[in-house]
Amino acid sequence: MAMSDVPGLVLETLKSAEARGFKLSCEEMVGRLLAALASAVPPGGRVLELGTGAGVGAAWLVSGLEHRSDVTVLTLERDPELAAAAREFAWPEWVEVRVADVEKELPELGRFDLIFADAEGGKWSGLDLTVSALQPSGVLVVDDMDLSRYPSIKHRESVTRVRDTILSDPRLVAVDLPVSSGIMVAAKRRD
Ligand SMILES: C[S@@+](CC[C@H](N)C(=O)[O-])C[C@H]1O[C@@H](n2cnc3c(N)ncnc32)[C@H](O)[C@@H]1O
Questions:
Q1: Which of 17, 88, 97, 129 has the most other CB atoms within 10 Å of its CB?
Q2: E strand intervals along 51-133
Q3: Which has more confidence, 67 or 31?
């Protein structure tokens, strides 16, 4: 895919990530999936990202929401320096970068139409909080599920546990996509 069609805000966040040596940003295919799913959130939709990092995932989400002003995007980051740097980008006014620990904050946030679970909290631990925060018909995206990228047995066990939990959760209809960094997409059944 040509860099020329990467949205400007994404390019800015990528540049900033590189400048600060932040290597955990989502890969391009994950970003494009986020943009596509964000574009489909219903009117008044709420989008949540767990783990802002350098802002790359949030920029992809926003790119899919171009021309919408009826939505909100909330992205949580526990590292105050990363959050402060991410706030510097030219986000639309409906984007909020919040310093917070996912597992403490999630129970208070209500429900979301799209959640990108990309932090330790709410994914490797506290996954149930994330699933509970999904609106019926809401969609969950979980990144970094490619087992072959984890040299440590302990990490591979965590990935396997999270995958099995998502695939067997009766509230979800899930698919495991062996592309890019390894992506799981799960939709929450209607109540
Ligand atoms: C994989 S990076 C996020 C990348 C970003 N989502 C993107 O797509 O570019 C994970 C981030 O989650 C943050 N994080 C880890 N555990 C967290 C927690 N419990 N609460 C909030 N942020 C957390 C880390 O500081 C790190 O910046």
A1: 97
A2: 72-77, 95-99, 112-117
A3: 31
Residue whose CA lies nearest to ligand 1 atom number 9: 25
Residue 1 is predicted with a pLDDT of: 47
Domain boundaries, the chain: 3-188
SS3 assignment, position 29: helix
Residues 6+ apart with CB under 8 A from 16: 54, 55, 85, 89
What per-residue confidence (pLDDT) applies to 67? Answer: 85
Q: Which is more confidently placed, 1 or 166?
A: 166
> For the chain, what is the mean pLDDT?
96
Which listed CATH number (3.90.1580.10, 3.40.50.150, 3.40.50.1370, 3.10.150.10) goes with 3-188?
3.40.50.150
Give the nearest ligand 1 atom to 31 CA: 8
